[in-house]
Structures are given as C-alpha cells and as structure tokens.
C-alpha cells in the first residue's frame, strides 16, 4: 500500500522550506517536486517556455505575481485567473518564474520593476518563464491547478503581496483583441509531481535530532539510507502528521529488517541465529553537556551482542564489529521513557545494578547495556515501540544463551587459593578447588538471599543453609567481578522465566508504558 502526502523540505543553509510530495511504499521513500512538463508537440527548449499574451480589455493579462530580487527570490506567477489571457494559453502555471519580458531579462529585477514592465508592455506581451521547482514556502503558492480553487492563496497570508495584472494596464487598443489561445501544433504542458529522490528503506535510519545535539526538531525528521544518502529535513504541518509518517516509515524499516534477519538466519546454525538488530544512537563517552550521540547498529546473534558502525550486509561483515560481548555477561537496563504528560519516568529494572547513571540529557527512550569491568554503553532510540522491542529481544537472547550454555565457570581466589566458581542452570552455584577439583560448597539459586561487593573485585554471597536455616557468607575475588555478577543475574532471570514467564513479562517497563499510552 502506498502512502502519499504533501510536506515541506527544509533547507538549513537558506532556512527556506519547499513544498514536496512524499510517496512511501514498502521498500522506498520517494520525494517528489512539482515541475511543468511537455506532454505533446515538439518542445525545443527543455526548461524555458516563451508565451505571448494579448492583453484583454476586461481582465488584462489574467495573472498575479509575487516575489522579486529584494526578497532573494525570482518574480513568480502566484495566481492565474480562469478563462482569462494567461489561462487561455495553456502554457503558464502558478509557480512559473518570469525570466524575460519582451526580451528584457528580469531575473535580478525587483518586484516593482517587473510590475512596471508588464503594465507598460503594450497589448502583446511576450514572456519567457521557467518553473521554479524550489519555491520557498513563504511565497505561499497554492499547489492546485489553475482556476478559482487556487484563490485560497491570499496575499495577506504571505509576507509578499500579489500584484494583480488582471486589471487593465496602459492599453492603447480599446477593441477586444482575439483571445490568447494555444495554436494546434504548439506543445502542450502540464504541471506534474516528478520523482527527484528515492531512498531505499532497507537498513535505513531515522533521526529527529539536529546533528550532534539533543535538540529535537519540531514536527520534522530526516531519513538516511544505508549508503548515507539523506532525504533532507522533512517538515510536517502538524505534530499528528509528523508522528503518523514517523511511525509508517519506522514500520516499513522494521519489516525490511525482519526480512534481512530471515535471510541471514538461513545461512546460520540454529545456535547462531539473529534475534534482533537495528539502528540506535550511542552517547559518546566523556561528552560535555551538549551530549554528542553517534549512530550505531546493534545486533543480538547467537551467544553475542554486537556493536557496529555500519550494518553487517554479508556474512563476512560480522567479524568487523567494533565491540562483541557475551550475552550472559551483559545487563540491559531501561533509563528513560517520555510519558504523555511530558514528565520523566526513571525506570529501575528487576534486580537492577548500579543506579547511579547521569540522566541529564534530554532524550526519551534511553537504555544502557552494562558490560564487563564496570563499563557500559548508553543508547537512545526514536520511538517507545522500539524500546519495548529491544527490551524483549535482550531478554529472549540472554535466556536462550543461558539455556544453550547450561553453565559458566570463572577462575577466582580466596585467601591465596585458586578456585573455580560455576553458575549452572540446573544445579545453581558450585565452588571447587582448581587443582584437585574437590567441591568446596554448592547451593541452589533459591538459597541465594543477598550479595554485596566492593565495586572492584570482591563479592560476598549470602546463602541460606537448608538444614540449619542459618545464613552462610561466602567471599570470593574475581578479575572481572561485573561480568560474574551479570552472569548470575542472567542465570537467575532465565531460571525465573522458565518457572514463571508471566512474572518476567510483568517486569517489562517499556511494554507497560506502551499499553498505558
């Protein structure tokens, strides 16, 4: 199904916006601009049209003009009156820029100069025009075809007034002249929407923010293709329209990503499937208050969480990831949702660790992925629905990896002894001597009643003895304590999910938000 709508294309350099038409299909977003095209007859000069108008006693030239050099725009035809001189030629259109009047070039003339020339040009006026494809929106030119309906463009709605040339100028001839009618073999012209840019949506990304800042564009966004080609800034007349288009384009990008995942998964073993992938913005480390973000492409595949600067297109691309982490050793955490009433919701996940994040930035829909050695990545997505999908996908990918792996063993030490600590999906926790392999202690997941750590290498695990009901404290030291704590979290969460999936679903912050809205 194709979606179309009139929008504006905003030019940041000139700060002007131009009328465009958007056309969205499943795979492509196309930007169209209006132009005048020759539909029959021989068109010798591709862009310029030269038309002779005969001034009529009633109605004059039958057109109005706007613009001029003082406004940094050419003089353009802003109205054409039905059945009058300009309309009868069939060769003039609203939006045509006047280039010459009776052979005199007026491209850099002021509004008044062109009005004076046209009013005093005699009964036959020959004008050369070229359609202005990028007419700034401040000209308020109607997009419709000529006729009474186009009169909704009143001069008062624009900073530039129409000068009507449908009134009589200095006509020497008082007898009615023959109408300006098109000659049989003259070329015929039509105003049409023409494709000017097509952006493929496969692996495309959307940005609502001004480049490198936290400033959210008002009712506007840009779409960037995989090869970096941008639509430019698409501006909409209402917030509702902007939201509708953002959702529609996002949905099509997601559907194509799903297709790409299915294709990739055909070449991968069952244990190495892509669970989810897509674009996010990553907050750069050590950035100041202006919060710099960079586009990153994330993927959850097999046992790993990947961070790319550009999406993996072929199987060989998977080795080119900037970072790869084992899924058992990461912790996903939602930070921020933007509620309908614009207040922030600080969301803490079940069994959340390290709640000391700096949440000063102004972006909604943020999540972080904490990794080994106390490090973390802070991400932002454009829509709440995307946040819900990432939350669900991380859970699923981690649970699958825990069940596939079954157990993880880490080297640790206590009081000079080198020990091994195993987290096992079926058995729980086991600690044994690395040399003799003698089991020192073993507890089920349900026996773990608490833990505390020094934030560096040491952790205390508090277990309840099933017989005595007493709490036993086990102290261990790890090289990468964060990875071990995340692993314990992953295994316990996966265990809970296998026993009580409804409980895990009830912990979904993002989906709760989605439903409440």
From TrEMBL:
- Gene3D superfamilies (UniProt xref): 2.30.42.10, Pleckstrin-homology domain (PH domain)/Phosphotyrosine-binding domain (PTB)
Q: What is its main location?
A: cytoplasm
Q: Which organism is it from?
A: Rissa tridactyla
Region ranges (Disordered) = 143-186
Family from the record: Belongs to the syntrophin family.
Q: Which SMART domains match?
A: PDZ (SM00228)
Molecular function, one GO term: structural molecule activity
Q: Which PANTHER family match?
A: GAMMA-2-SYNTROPHIN, SYNTROPHIN
Protein name as it appears in the record: SNTG2 protein
Q: Which GO terms describe its cellular component?
A: cytoskeleton; syntrophin complex
Localization terms from the record = Cytoplasm, Cytoskeleton
| Assigned keywords, A-Z | Actin-binding, Cytoplasm, Cytoskeleton
| Low complexity biased stretches | 143-160
InterPro entries hit by this protein: PDZ, PDZ_sf, PH-like_dom_sf, Syntrophin, Syntrophin_4th
Domain PDZ stretches? 50-133
**The encoding gene:** Sntg2
């Amino acid at each position: 199904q194709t979606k179309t709508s009139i929008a504006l294309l905003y030019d940041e350099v000139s700060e002007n916006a131009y009328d465009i038409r958007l056309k969205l299909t499943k795979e492509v977003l196309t930007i169209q601009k209006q132009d005048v095209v020759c539909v029959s007859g021989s068109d010798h000069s591709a862009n310029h049209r030269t038309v002779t108008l005969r001034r009529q006693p009633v109605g004059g030239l039958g057109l109005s003009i706007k613009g001029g050099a003082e406004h940094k725009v050419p003089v353009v035809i802003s109205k054409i009156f039905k059945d009058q001189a300009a309309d009868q030629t069939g060769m003039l259109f609203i939006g045509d820029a006047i280039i010459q009047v009776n052979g005199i070039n007026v491209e850099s003339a002021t509004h008044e100069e062109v009005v004076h020339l046209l009013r005093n040009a005699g009964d036959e006026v020959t004008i050369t025009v070229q359609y202005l494809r990028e007419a700034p929106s401040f000209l308020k030119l109607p997009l419709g075809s000529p006729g009474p309906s186009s009169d909704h463009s009143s001069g008062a709605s624009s900073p530039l007034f129409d000068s009507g040339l449908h009134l009589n100028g200095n006509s020497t001839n008082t007898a009615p002249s023959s109408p300006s009618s098109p000659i049989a073999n003259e070329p015929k012209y039509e105003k049409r929407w023409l494709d000017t840019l097509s952006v493929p949506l496969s692996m495309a990304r959307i940005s609502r923010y001004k480049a490198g800042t936290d400033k959210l564009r008002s009712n506007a966004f840009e779409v960037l293709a995989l090869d970096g080609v941008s639509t430019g800034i698409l501006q909409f007349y209402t917030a509702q329209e902007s939201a509708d288009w953002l959702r529609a384009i996002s949905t099509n990008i997601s559907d194509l990503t799903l297709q790409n995942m299915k294709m990739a998964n055909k070449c991968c073993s069952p244990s190495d499937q892509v669970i989810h992938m897509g674009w996010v913005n990553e907050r750069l480390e050590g950035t100041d208050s202006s919060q710099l973000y960079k586009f990153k492409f994330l993927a959850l595949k097999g046992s790993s969480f990947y961070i790319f600067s550009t999406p993996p297109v072929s199987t060989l691309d998977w080795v080119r990831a900037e970072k790869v982490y084992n899924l058992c050793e990461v912790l996903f955490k939602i930070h921020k949702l933007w509620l309908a009433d614009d207040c922030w919701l600080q969301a803490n996940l079940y069994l959340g660790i390290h709640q000391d994040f700096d949440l000063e930035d102004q972006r909604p829909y943020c999540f972080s992925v904490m990794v080994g050695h106390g490090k973390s990545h802070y991400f932002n997505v454009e829509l709440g629905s995307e946040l819900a999908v990432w939350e669900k996908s991380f859970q699923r990918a981690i649970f699958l990896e825990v069940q596939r792996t079954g157990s993880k063993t880490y080297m640790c030490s206590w009081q000079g002894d080198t020990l091994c600590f195993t987290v096992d999906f079926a058995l729980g926790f086991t600690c044994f001597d690395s040399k003799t392999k003698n089991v020192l202690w073993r507890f089920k997941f349900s026996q773990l009643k608490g833990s505390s750590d020094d934030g560096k290498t040491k952790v205390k695990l508090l277990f309840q003895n099933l017989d005595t009901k007493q709490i036993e404290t086990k102290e261990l030291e790890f090289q990468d304590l964060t990875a071990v704590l995340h692993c314990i979290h992953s295994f316990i969460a996966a265990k809970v999910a296998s026993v009580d999936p409804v409980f895990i679903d009830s912990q979904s912050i993002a989906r709760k938000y989605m439903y409440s809205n």
